[in-house]
Design a protein that fits this description.
alpha+beta; globular; 3 helices; single chain
Length: 163
Amino acid sequence: MQIKGRKFLSKKEKKQLQLKLSEIYGDTIKDLILKTDNLEEARTDEGLLLLKGNKIWFFSHDDQFIPSIYCLRDTHLKLPKIVVDVGAIRFITNGADVMAPGVVLFDEAISKHDVVAIHEEKADTIIAVGFSLIDGHEFEKTKKGKVVKMLHYLKDNIWNFQL
């Protein structure tokens, strides 16, 4: 990932960002981005990144900001949850989309195209973030095929990013 430009966000830009993110993720986002936080915007060859403490907290995908695994693990921001079995972990952490047979729990409140957090079964830790390809109520009927399009996972460029 090649950085093309960086800048710290002003208080006004942080406020605008809070409003934009709260439309997507709810009012809890206001506690994540404080006026005193040093937030940095970085333009890269792969898109726009929001950095906090030299770690990527949000990245852009199709003009939408998606929280990183770092952000989700370090804050109380909650995304709809999908739990996968141990056998699916190595595929997901190598960038594979989530397939129906590997899913242990699929939240029924999930709508198609929702941003979701993928958790592993045993330790219940977040290992990836993706877009749901189906509605939660459809999952019971789904026996095979992709159910989540992967956006970010452990060991990818976002996870391994360093300034």
